Amino acid sequence: MTQTTKNQNPPISGAGRPGQRQQERELRKRRRARRRQLLLSGIVALLILVAALTWAIVAARQSSERAALADAHATATANAAVVQSTQTANAANAKATADVQSLIKANPKGQDTPPQVTSPLQKTASGVQYQIIKAGDGGTVQAGRTVAFEYTGWIQGTNKKFDSSYDHGGQPFSVTVGQGQVIKGWEDGVTGMKIGETRRLIIPPSLGYGSGAQKDQSGKVIIPANATLIFDVTAVAFSQPAQQSAPTN
C-alpha cells in the first residue's frame, strides 16, 4: 500500500480547474480586441483632427483671399474716385478759367454805368431786390461755400461806379458765403445763384453800409451815407477761401 502510494504519479498542474485555459484565451482575445478598438479610435480621432485642421487652413486661406480681394476692390474704387474727382475738378477749373477769360474779354473794365436790364425784379426775404441777367447751370451758391465772383458796383441815383473786379485785371473776388466777409445784402443776394449765373443786386442802405460813408485812403468819399447799391455779379466757380477785402473801392 505504501509502495503503491510512493510510485503514484503527481497530479497534473491545473487539474481540478477545468475551462481555465479557455478563459485565458478569451481574455487575451478581448484584450486584443480592446487594443484594436483603441487603435481604431485613435486613428479616427487623428483623421478627424487632420480634417479639422485642413478645413481651418482652407477657410483661413479663403478668408484671407476674400479680404485681399475686398481690399483690392476698395483700393481700386478709391483710386477711381480720386481720379474721377481730379478729372471733375480739372474740368471745372478749366471751365472756370475759360469763363473768366470770356468775361474779361467782354469787360476789359467795369462799365461806368449799369447797363439796362429788362428781366423781372425779384426780392429776397431780407429785402434785397435782384434780377437774373444770365442763367447759370452749375452748382448752387449756399452758406459755407467759397465762391469766386466777378462784379461791378454802382450807386443808385447817380449810377456812378465805385468798384469793379474788371478794373483789377479781372481777378475774381472770393467770398465764403455766410461768414460776414461782405455786406449783408451781398450775401443774401448771391445765395441761391448758380455757378455761371449773372445777377443784378439792388441793396438798400440797411443791408449795405447804412449811415456810414465809405472813404478811400485819401479821405475821398467813395460810397455816400445811406446809399442804395447796385451790383452786377457773376458766380464764376467754387474755390478755396481767400483772404481778400470786401469790394468797396
From TrEMBL:
<feature type="region of interest" description="Disordered">
    <location>
        <begin position="1"/>
        <end position="30"/>
    </location>
</feature>
<feature type="compositionally biased region" description="Polar residues">
    <location>
        <begin position="1"/>
        <end position="11"/>
    </location>
</feature>
<feature type="domain" description="PPIase FKBP-type">
    <location>
        <begin position="144"/>
        <end position="239"/>
    </location>
</feature>
<dbReference type="InterPro" id="IPR046357">
    <property type="entry name" value="PPIase_dom_sf"/>
</dbReference>
<keyword id="KW-0472">Membrane</keyword>
<dbReference type="Pfam" id="PF00254">
    <property type="entry name" value="FKBP_C"/>
</dbReference>
<keyword id="KW-0697">Rotamase</keyword>
<keyword id="KW-0812">Transmembrane</keyword>
<protein>
    <recommendedName>
        <fullName>Peptidyl-prolyl cis-trans isomerase</fullName>
        <ecNumber>5.2.1.8</ecNumber>
    </recommendedName>
</protein>
<feature type="transmembrane region" description="Helical">
    <location>
        <begin position="38"/>
        <end position="58"/>
    </location>
</feature>
<comment type="similarity">
    <text>Belongs to the FKBP-type PPIase family.</text>
</comment>
<keyword id="KW-1133">Transmembrane helix</keyword>
<dbReference type="InterPro" id="IPR001179">
    <property type="entry name" value="PPIase_FKBP_dom"/>
</dbReference>
<keyword id="KW-0413">Isomerase</keyword>
